[in-house]
Amino acid sequence: MTAPSAVDNTHLEVRHLRKRFADLTAVDDVSLSIERGSITGLIGPNGAGKSTLFETIVGEVRADEGSILFNGKAIQTLSADQVYRAGLARTFQIPQPFPEMTVLDNLLLAAPGQLGETFWAPVIRPLAIRKQEEEHLQRAHEILEFTTLSRVAGLAARNLSGGQQKLLELSRVLMGKPELIMLDEPAAGVNPALTNLLMDRIHALNDQGITFLIIEHNMDLIMRHCQPIIAMANGRVIFTGTAAEAMDCDELLESYLGDMSTVPS
Question: Alpha-carbon distance 86 to 4, whole Å?
Answer without folding.
Answer: 13
